[in-house]
Amino acid sequence: MPEKTSTDYILPSKVYDVLKKTTTVVLPGLGSLYLALAQIWGLPAADKVTGTIVAVNLFLGLLLAFGSASYNNSESKYAGTVSVDTNPAGNPRAVYSLNEDPTEVDLGKEVIFKVVKPE
């Protein structure tokens, strides 16, 4: 699906994806690499450089956690709603409602619907 433009979450999906890759792969790898090379080649301030990388990684991880929580608490993650109604014969049937243009549903990897329970 196209990127949502709603403002009820703090990180756009592209920023979230870059931040996640940075905090889970790039910075831990960089910190480990510098620490190892500092031990082998005698590079300066291994503890300070590695500690700085860890501190930056922790801060970015917090941003990632807040971004994830705000997105999960928003309506933006849903492509639409699904509710179960009964037809005139009393048989249950699912009713789907899309928030998006139906021709754009296949642009995403998945579609998430919010379940609306009948009153």
Ordered list of secondary-structure elements with their pairings:
Blueprint: H1 13-41, H2 46-72, E1 80-86, E2 92-98, E3 113-116
Parallel strand pairs: 1-3
Antiparallel strand pairs: 1-2
Helix pairs in contact: 1-2
Q: Specify the helix fraction band.
A: 40-55%
Q: DSSP strand (E) fraction?
A: 15-25%
Which series of helices and strands comes N to C? HHEEE
Major beta-sheet overview: 3 strands, mixed
Give the C-alpha Rg: 22 Å
First-to-last CA distance:
30 Å
> Overall mean pLDDT score?
83
Plain-language structure description:
The protein is of the alpha+beta class and 119 residues long. It has 2 domains: 60 residues; 37 residues, no CATH class. It is 47% helix and 15% strand. The chain contains 2 helices and 3 strands; from the N terminus they run H-H-E-E-E. It has a 3-stranded mixed beta sheet with strand order 2-1-3, with no helix packed on it. Helix 1 runs antiparallel to helix 2. The longest helix has 29 residues. The two termini are 30 Å apart. The N terminus is likely disordered.
Q: What attributes characterize this protein structure?
A:
single chain, 119 residues, alpha+beta, 2 helices
